[in-house]
Design a protein that fits this description.
By secondary structure, this protein is mainly α. It has a domain of 97 residues. The chain is 66% helix and 0% strand. It is built from five helices and no strands. Helix 2 crosses helix 3. The chain is flat.
Length: 151
Amino acid sequence: MGEKVSTRAEVIRRVTEVHELLLKGARREQIVRLANDKYQWDVLPRQIDHYIAKARGRFEEEARVKREAELGKAIGRLDGLFLRSSTAGHNRDALAVQKELNELLGLKAPTRLEMSGPEGGPIITRDLSALSDEELERFEAILTKLEQATP
């Protein structure tokens, strides 16, 4: 087993087959069994691991390309919708399309969040500048104990 060197074309075919098997949900053990029993590849499991790694690399590349392509397609569709809406005088539709495009491209302003205290009230603050160093040290010790006690 594993003595014969595979040609480049055979390796490409095998990686493609492993890629298809992974798409169908096959696990490593199943791929190793199928490779030698069904496909008669006569290779060691570590070689199958190499094929699996190459197939997974294809998934990563496909994901990068697909995301870029899908983003381009989405932008193109939205641009077309915007053109048709604005040309037809459907300003509300055009605005909705523009908002969707802005969100897709991350152009939307961040949502403003306001913090509040207990039960929606104001956040309670204290001016500690009037405290002595000794008082500040005691206060810091209390805070440290509270932090340690809080899970």
